[in-house]
Design brief:
mainly alpha, 8 helices, globular
């Protein structure tokens, strides 16, 4: 594999990893599991993969239908990512989501894992990276999501409450930098 291609795949994978924030979602996943007793990690992972791949290919067409260009959507997405990063860093919730009684594809796969920030990021990445690199990044992240969902009890013991909070803050700072980069690269000032 050519070093430049590997670097692009690594960049896309890390950007998606930061925005998906599966490690930061571990406390929420633990709470969901405690409510219902079991999380269907295979079903949730397949739903995440399908949602991201479909949005990668038809998201821009959907934008065309409503009269938006990818740069405008990327700027809006950078603001959403900025807010998510601030939530992670400051520990303040700007987005309040009601959790249904049962854990299914809807609350876990969407919006927790493949939410608005992830979808926005996919379209933003499409303006900077090759589609095949993004697809590889999606698959790698979906595999990691599956591993986390499958091993959430073990991860809870491994990291402990303090470790999970530190990871969440670290990924919040990375997301903040990503939001600023997306905003700068899509504004023509």
């Amino acid at each position: 594999m050519h070093p430049l291609i590997f670097r692009e795949i690594l960049s896309v994978t890390m950007i998606l990893f930061a925005i998906i924030d599966i490690l930061g979602a571990i406390p929420i996943i633990i709470e969901m599991r405690q409510r219902v007793g079991h999380i269907e990690s295979e079903k949730a992972s397949i739903a995440v993969l399908v949602l991201m791949v479909v949005f990668l290919f038809v998201g821009d067409k959907l934008l065309d239908i409503i009269g938006l260009d990818v740069s405008s959507f990327a700027i809006a997405g950078s603001l959403v990512i900025f807010i998510i990063a601030m939530e992670m860093i400051l520990g303040v919730k700007f987005f309040n989501e009601e959790m249904p009684e049962t854990v299914s594809i809807v609350p876990l796969a969407f919006p927790l894992i493949a939410g608005a920030g992830t979808m926005t990021t996919l379209l933003s990445l499409k303006s900077q990276y090759q589609t095949q690199d993004i697809l590889i990044g999606i698959v790698l992240n979906t595999m990691f999501v599956y591993l986390v969902l499958k091993n959430v009890k073990w991860l809870e013991r491994l990291f402990g409450k303090t470790g999970i909070n530190i990871l969440r803050k670290a990924f919040g700072i990375i997301l903040l930098a990503i939001a600023i980069k997306l905003f700068r690269s899509n504004t023509h000032l």
